[in-house]
Amino acid sequence: MSRTVLSTKRQKDTINLNLGRILVFCEGMTEKQYLVFDCDDPPNVQKVILQMLGSESKFELLVSNYLFEVWLLMHFENVETKMTKRAIYNRLTHHLTRAYKKASQGIIREIIQNGNVEAAISNAEELEAKYKIEEKDITSNIGEMNPYTNMHILIEQLMAEIS
């Protein structure tokens, strides 16, 4: 299988514009740019969200509040109440064969293999629907939307592309 390589210009632009951020994109007719971040950093997250949504870059904004690990935990259970980082990590550890440690080798693979991505998508959609009923959205209420993630948007797109 051949490896996808970015054009030199695209690589340079991506590095300059998104240093320190995670950016997922594909080349071609279905090109989308996703900007993914947690609400534990930066401290002025609501301002950052508004800046990104108002930018000319047309990013699809993917936000997890409080942490990206909320999305990972949704592979195993419904997450409806605010939790600390330690509580989230402890709940993930409960579902894994070893203690959850961010970025440890093979941890995402274990979550994907032992968790349920369809349940995670459903859990995220249910949480999103709850906030919609409460008339809350990421443009003005992200501080009140904890837990929250919309990572399922990217995952559903990826699943559609590979199926």
Taking pLDDT < 50 over at least 5 consecutive residues as the criterion, the unreliable ranges are: 18-23
pLDDT averaged over residues: 83
What global shape is seen? globular
Spatial gap, N to C terminus: 17 Å
Total number of domains: 1
- % residues in beta strands: 5-15%
| Main sheet record | 4 strands, mixed
Q: Taking strands numbered 1, 2, ... along the chain, how are they ordered across the largest sheet?
A: 1-2-3-4
Give the helix/strand class. Answer: alpha+beta
Helix segment tally: 7
Helical content band = 40-55%
Report the count of strand segments. 4
Alpha-carbon Rg, integer: 16 Å
SSE sequence, one letter per element: HEEHEHHHHEH
Give the oligomeric state.
single chain
Give the gist of this structure.
The protein is an alpha+beta fold.
Summarize the helices and strands and which ones pair or pack.
Blueprint: H1 8-18, E1 22-25, E2 33-38, H2 45-54, E3 60-65, H3 69-73, H4 85-95, H5 107-114, H6 117-133, E4 148-149, H7 152-162
Parallel strand pairs: 2-3
Antiparallel strand pairs: 1-2, 3-4
Helix pairs in contact: 6-7
